Amino acid sequence: MALWVPVATFVTSGLEHSIANMFFCTLGIAMGAPITFSGFILNNLLPVTIGNTLAGVCFMAVPYSLAYGALGKPKPATS
Predict the structure, then answer these.
(1) Which residues, including other chains, have CB under 8 Å from residue 52's CB and lie 6 or more apart?
(2) What is the pLDDT of residues 42-79, one digit of tens each?
(3) For the CA atoms of 28, 32, 35, 39, what is the dihedral angle to 10 degrees?
């Protein structure tokens, strides 16, 4: 119950996140919204999940790896 307002604010501000969309879209379907579950999966959840994954890799994982991980370390010299 405590997360209802923050998640609702996130979604109504126009931001897309797969977990928030899973909650609100399935709630809408259960309440009688004119959308099918397959339409929700294909037209919303799949593109949003792909976008969230790409953004997470490009803007979180790669910079952290370059700064602190294996991508930022020089390769050891081999003979």
Answers:
(1) 16, 17, 18
(2) 998 999 899 989 999 999 988 888 888 777 677 676 76
(3) 70
